[in-house]
Amino acid sequence: xxxxxxxxxxxxxxxxxxxxxxxxxxxxxxxxxxxxxxxxxxxxxxxxxxxxxxxxxxxxxxxxxxxxxxxxxxxxxxxxxxxxxxxxxxxxxxxxxxxxxxxxxxxxxxxxxxxxxxxxxxxxxxxxxxxxxxxxxxxxxxxxxxxxxxxxxxxxxxxxxxxxxxxxxxxxxxxxxxxxxxxxxxxxxxxxxxxxxxxxxxxxxxxxxxxxxxxxxxxxxxxxxxxxxxxxxxxxxxxxxxxxxxxxxxxxxxxxxxxxxxxxxxxxxxxxxxxxxxxxxxxxxxxxxxxxxxxxxxxxxxxxxxxxxxxxxxxxxxxxxxxxxxxxxxxxxxxxxxxxxxxxxxxxxxxxxxxxxxxxxxxxxxxxxxxxxxxxxxxxxxxxxxxxxxxxxxxxxxxxxxxxxxxxxxxxxxxxxxxxxxxxxxxxxxxxxxxxxxxxxxxxxxxxxxxxxxxxxxxxxxxxxxxxxxxxxxxxxxxxxxxxxxxxxxxxxxxxxxxxxxxxxxxxxxxxxxxxxxxxxxxxxxxxxxxxxxxxxxxxxx
Length: 542
What we know:
The protein has 542 residues and is α/β, with parallel strands linked by helices. It has 26 helices and 18 strands. Strands 11-14-17-10-18 form a five-stranded parallel β-sheet.
């Protein structure tokens, strides 16, 4: 007798439906599994056999063959244990296969028959709903995760016996046997809002001084512009970066599902939190490997870039990262995706994140303060060159975080603007962009193409002349010219101005001056500036 149970799996982060086919026949008793499987899937045979025995259903002395279809995709993970057990019970006549029509079955089995949680449930359930399935039997620990879709009947089970009892009951009585799992999405997102208790220790009001840096960060959050903070140790770069999520617009349901799907596949959804309702903030150490940053590995999984999707990836001490590791960001920053090619296939992970970098201007951290800096010209040049030109070219805003004055430190936090107030302005600017780009795939000003810049960043004659002077005096490239206009458009949106004014262009141009100061387009000019300052220090010391 042959039975078929539908299950699910993920390849990279892309879900697909898997048919678990079970055949029982006379012959030498054996349990054989086929279908291009990894070692953990092959081990399912023994887990299923013992779990069925402990549930009171011993395998008959027959030849049992299990096929996992499609056979051309390598199967990994442990989500097939429960569907294999159900398929065997159907093939041996203990369950009626008709009761599994339009039903997805996912779960790992313990030897005592316990149904354990698995990774990747959210994308699998979403894909099953799109394919016309209306019921999902899931581990109880994954039930709320599956219920986040809100369009399918989710049955959370704790043991194999519960599944058998559920499938043997009449269709009308099943909801009484195991009530479907539901969640209140409105309450979930309301709980995810930044409360005063949550913001305590993460509010911009706690940062004294650095008004220019806080303004630059506000512009970056409003237009999703990548930003680099340069300054000496203790100037507040990390403190400001860690508070950026508190001023970003809240996640929408669609964005939350996208982010949660990545975390579900990575197995990083916390118990009791079916969805990620706050924007992610990832801060990898500078010793991170290329595979950990971009994703991949023997068993491909999302990296830190993808775990920052729709959120912030903060690279503290950016110049300490390996050059090859930083260069991995070049393609994801442009395409909003990470593409990985391995012997097991090609994988794509989402990578739509806001990049925030922080670094010192030299190895000791105090250049150009010649009273403190003791680095040589070659040391400074070598240190700054760790940030390659292509990476700098993809950063819209570069701002210098100067040393905070004692008077600013002592005036107290009650005079500082709160994150909630900054967030209101950011949300208004985001709404303006949403209406502007309605009907297109673009959401933020930072994503505008040259054609769209020409359409939405029109300048009056006075502003055109100003932009020409900025272009010539700063020796901008074509890409830098477009970045200034994108940033200026965001600054205008923050003020609610329909047109880009001269003050918007001036402020946007100022955000290109810091990288020109440290990384001049002419390498000899930058080195000459360093050499001149160091020579003055030597004369002074002499």
